[in-house]
Design a protein that fits this description.
By secondary structure, this protein is an alpha/beta fold. It is 45% helix and 13% strand. It has a seven-stranded parallel beta sheet, with helices on both faces. Strands 21-22-20-23-24-19-25 form a seven-stranded parallel beta sheet, with helices on both faces. Strands 11-14-13-12 form a four-stranded antiparallel beta sheet. Strand 1 and strand 2 form a beta hairpin. The longest helix has 33 residues. It is globular. The chain binds iron/sulfur cluster (SF4).
């Protein structure tokens, strides 16, 4: 971004900044900011529009939810759509190339906000403003919507001389391409793999023998397959820092160039997707501009903007503040790289500024796409992404999408056959969710809406099945009858207000009656005595009485009455596609193929539900775990239903993903359980699904090149009493103070996270140590991690998602604190798997994996240093194997831990030399009073 003109003066409007350390206002008259109380800040904000940064965050700091004002983030989204910014004063300063406010601390922020506002407005007056096109048109609508920035922008955004191309005219159309030939069968030459790796690593790369060995091993996954349904499978455990990304991209890019095929790389986290997008540029030479890209990031369709939904929102579907959001999204869509709204180039913070589920309503969440009947079909981001991935050399996707594509087969245009599962330790959990069945109120009402369409006062473009298939109905009598029958049968599904009705005991229809009975059983069997009020309740789907079984039977009949006509419609559509009538041009065919895919998906869903109900009252199926549940959050029930999971979800994974593939590489730093320092390959094989095929996987392991003995330390703190929130909070505060921030705090319960945050956040803020928290701050998780990465003195508290989703090399992360041993949640599903998996052995493997993943956040490069603290005296020694070989592990008091951390931060690092391990268990004894397990 070019530097703004140096003569920029702060905007002559007041600005407010609120942190946990206090509130500061710059009234644009006195020339400096003054500290004010929260009450005075609220009065000031109610009197006059103030410039703020992130209004929901300021509102939560003030305890004043109605706060509105001139939010700089909204202005940024208008001026620079699709550009990245960390939504903090420091991040904004960096994005705008302005001097940051750090030197003056919080008191300097209001003046900086006024300067940043002026810089953004000035940008729109510059002839070089790159995002000018469309701005004037959108601004006219925003002015009518009384967007507070509109009058100021009206002074700087010039009316264009010619009418601007509006979004839907501006977006390019995608082209159909001829189907791709099947890939040639290639045997990769080891010398060529080594040369490729050297070329993409670059001449200045350090020599990494482990990476070279990894690349050779990965090459085996691309060999021609010898027998049908017997893919080459390579399991590769590679410690952090091996360089495995380039290690598999080297043979992968060689294979795709020589064979003409597509390699799929599947990840779990968005952080790795971003890294892959960067690193793959070196491995896959890009194609000429007029061709489709060689590397494509592919997501589930619910991630992308649906242009038809956006058009509806712009034309009155959204009112008030959401209507402003729709205009800002339209600005973004015109400049977006790929229309990805979740983790793509739409700022993650944009949706939370509007405090509504507006973003989700702009995607195609419910599979209601009308394909070629849509006026934007030829410009649709989702269709473009599907075509691009069919022709790409490398597709970067996530585990769930790869599994869904393999299971449903449509969407991609081609089945993934050469797959690299990076972050392979998450494949089990992804398969568990993908192959699950949930017959719940939330799921069934979605199906009703999909079949029937809008009811009552609903508005928008959504249409029912009958409207979507009107041309089929007029052409095919049998199909028309099936559509009518499906429409009637869907009336049996829960409708609006179902949750209130079953709560009041007045369910309507057989499925609501089943849900009401389910709720009754779950509550009747609950033995928590209300202690766990606010959390979900569940009970086994066993020992159910005759009345419940009868209700379930009636529900099963109702679902079957819907499944049959849907299956019939599917058959009729197949017949039309096989023997096409005159009117079936390319566009109509695409729409019918789309409808066929989504009908098959619903038939499979219904079959799963019917099978679940059919088992009730009979002998349990050993392949499945079934239970009834009431989902609650913060004391409020939000869903009720029956659930089914595979006891081993790798069984369907092996059948639908592994068996049809030709080659699969599964890799991770924590693929194998590490007990007593040994690689447990049996656990890796079980969790890869390979044992369900008659093949032997190749195994490969390489340790991390990092020197954990000098770079890291594990401190097990023995004197923070379990269950004492005040002591826990005090420990967190002192640890964060000792490290000067840069701490990632991991919790196993949201309740404890909030309690700790509430007790320490003000104290830390006053010491200049900002503390952010998932489930507390109104900021999405991805943005929280961006903020944490950008502010070396910031700390972040969170739960499971942060255990894997944080990739922060360098200074910003130097301390990881776990509040306790991450025991598995004692659910019905866990109990069944524990029983099948060897009891304690099963649990220990889960905990070691979690500890290893959490520890893995700490050391991301050979320059990183840091401490890993577990605040639990009851830390069993058998879990120590979770940490990489050579990592010093000590049991210490909190005081000793604090000295050690402060010492290493200040560079002294010798206040507490590592005590030699106790030969009995490999763990050093506490240095002062402690309580070793
Ligand atoms: S083709 Fe489907 S997903 Fe794409 S814009 Fe149209 S309705 Fe939305």
């Amino acid at each position: 971004m070019d530097s703004p003109a140096p003569a920029i003066q702060p905007l002559a409007l007041p600005a407010l900044h609120a942190s946990h350390g206090g509130c500061w206002i710059d009234d644009a008259r006195s020339g400096s900011a003054r500290e004010i109380g929260k009450g005075a800040a609220i009065v000031a904000a109610a009197d006059t529009p103030l410039i703020v940064l992130n209004a929901p965050l300021v509102a939560s700091r003030l305890g004043y939810p109605d706060l509105s004002g001139l939010d700089l983030l909204e202005l940024f989204a208008f001026v620079f759509p699709a550009r990245f910014v960390v939504p903090t004063p420091r991040g904004l300063a960096h994005a705008l190339d302005l001097p940051g406010p750090e030197l003056q601390g919080d008191a300097g922020v209001p003046a900086f906000l006024r300067l940043a506002a002026a810089a953004l407005l000035a940008e729109t007056a510059r002839p070089e403003w790159q995002e000018r096109e469309g701005a004037w048109t959108v601004l006219q609508t925003l002015a009518r919507l009384h967007w507070p920035w509109a009058p100021l922008l009206a002074q700087t955004v010039r009316r264009p001389e010619r009418a601007e191309r509006w979004l839907f005219a501006r977006l390019p159309e995608w082209e159909e391409a001829a189907p791709r030939a099947q890939p040639a069968q290639i045997v990769l030459d080891p010398t060529a793999i080594a040369a490729r790796l050297a070329a993409i690593a670059g001449s200045d790369a350090e020599d990494r023998p482990a990476q070279r060995a990894f690349a050779q091993e990965a090459g085996h996954a691309f060999a021609p397959r010898g027998r049908s349904r017997e893919p080459h499978v390579v399991l590769a455990q590679a410690g952090t820092g091996t360089g495995k990304t380039l290690g598999y991209l080297a043979p992968g890019s060689l294979w795709s160039a020589a064979s003409g095929g597509t390699v799929w790389v599947s990840t779990y986290t968005k952080a790795l997707q971003r890294q892959l997008r960067r690193e793959s540029r070196r491995a896959f030479a890009d194609r000429p501009k007029d061709q489709r890209p060689a590397v494509v990031v592919r997501k589930g369709r619910e991630n992308y903007l649906c242009l038809l939904n956006l058009e509806d929102a712009l034309q009155g579907g959204f009112q008030g503040r959401p209507a402003i959001l729709a205009q800002l999204v339209a600005r973004w869509a015109a400049y977006s790289q790929d229309g990805d709204m979740i983790g793509g180039d739409l700022p993650g913070w944009l949706g939370t500024l509007f405090r509504r589920r507006g973003i989700a309503a702009l995607t195609d969440q419910r599979g209601e796409c009308i394909y070629a009947a849509c006026p934007h079909y030829r410009k649709c981001f989702i269709e473009r992404a599907a075509r691009a991935s069919a022709e790409a050399d490398l597709v970067i996707a996530n585990h769930a999408l790869v599994m869904i594509n393999a299971a449903r087969g449509r969407e991609t245009g081609s089945q993934p056959t050469r797959i690299v599962f990076d972050e392979g330790h998450h494949v089990f959990d992804a398969a568990d969710s993908t192959f699950a069945a949930a017959l719940t109120g939330a799921e069934t009402i979605e199906l009703r809406r999909w079949v029937i369409g809008p009811e009552g006062k609903s508005r928008g473009r959504r249409r029912g099945l009958a409207a979507r298939l009107a041309d089929v109905a007029s052409y095919d009598e049998d199909g028309a009858r099936a559509i009518t029958r499906a429409r009637e049968a869907a009336e049996a599904l829960p409708g609006e207000g179902w949750l209130a009705r079953i709560g009041e005991g007045t369910p309507s229809g057989p499925i609501e009656t089943l849900l009401a009975a389910t709720r009754g059983v779950v509550h009747a069997r609950d033995e928590s005595g209300g202690q766990e009020a606010g959390y979900g309740l569940e009970t086994e789907a066993a020992g159910l009485d005759g009345a419940y079984i009868a209700v379930a039977g009636a529900a099963q009949d109702a679902l079957e009455a819907l499944r049959q006509p849907l299956a019939r419609i599917g058959t009729r559509l197949d017949a039309i596609l096989a023997d096409p009538p005159d009117w079936l041009d390319g566009a109509a065919r695409a729409r019918i193929e789309g409808a066929r895919g989504s009908i098959q998906w619903r038939c499979d869903l219904l079959s799963g539900w019917i099978a679940l109900l059919a088992r009730l009252g009979g002998p349990a199926d050993p392949d499945f775990v079934d239970w009834l549940a009431v989902d609650r959050s913060e004391g409020r029930e939000w869903d009720v239903g029956l659930h089914r999971r595979y006891l081993d979800p790798m069984k369907p994974f092996a059948a639908t993903v592994l068996a049809p593939a030709h080659g699969v590489l599964m890799t991770s730093a924590t693929l194998c359980d590490r007990n007593l320092g040994e690689h447990d390959w049996e656990s890796a094989i079980v969790r890869s699904g390979v044992r369900h095929l008659s093949i032997e996987p190749r195994r490969f392991a390489v340790d991390s090149p990092f020197d954990y003995a000098s770079q890291a330390e594990v401190l097990i703190v023995t004197d923070v009493p379990r269950g004492d929130i005040a002591a826990l909070a005090g420990a967190y505060a002192r640890l964060i103070e000792a490290s000067g921030g840069g701490a990632l705090g991991l919790f196993t319960a949201i309740r404890r996270l909030r309690a700790v945050h509430g007790r320490i956040v003000d104290r830390l803020a006053r010491a200049g140590l900002p503390l952010y928290a998932q489930h507390v701050d109104p900021i999405d998780t991805g943005t929280l991690v961006d903020i944490f990465r950008d502010e070396p003195r910031a700390s972040l508290l969170g739960t499971d998602a942060l255990r894997d989703g944080v990739d922060v090399p360098g200074e910003s992360l130097r301390l990881v604190v776990m509040e306790q041993v991450p025991w598995p949640k004692p659910s019905i599903l866990h109990r069944a798997r524990r029983l099948a998996g060897g009891g304690q052995t099963h649990d220990d493997a889960i905990i070691r994996a979690r500890l290893a993943q959490a520890f893995g956040r700490l050391i991301r490069s050979d320059r990183d240093r840091g401490a890993f603290v577990v605040l639990s005296a009851a830390f069993p020694s058998r879990l120590i194997g979770a940490f990489p070989a050579g990592t010093p592990v000590r049991r210490v008091t909190l005081d000793v831990a604090l000295q050690s951390i402060a010492g290493s931060v200040s560079g002294q690092n010798a206040t507490n030399p590592v005590i030699p391990p106790d030969p009995a268990n490999g763990v050093a004894a506490p240095t002062t009073s402690g309580n070793p397990a």
